[in-house]
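Q: Focus on the shape:
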Amino acid sequence: MARGDLMDQEWAIIGPLVPSERGRWARPSGDNPWFLNGMLYVLRTGCPWRDMHER
């Protein structure tokens, strides 16, 4: 877990509010914490989404 990522306790509160995977082409819902951490990183640093690291 990197600095600024959601802790497990925080995800336990937010996780049920995030929609689960739906439909045939949906991304796996197990990636939701990584995706949300990525969105928060973009908001925090101001970098474009395409410049994000692979992790």
Q: What stands out?
A: The mean pLDDT is 79. The radius of gyration is 12 Å. Residues 3 and 41 are 10 Å apart (CA to CA). The longest helix spans residues 32-45.
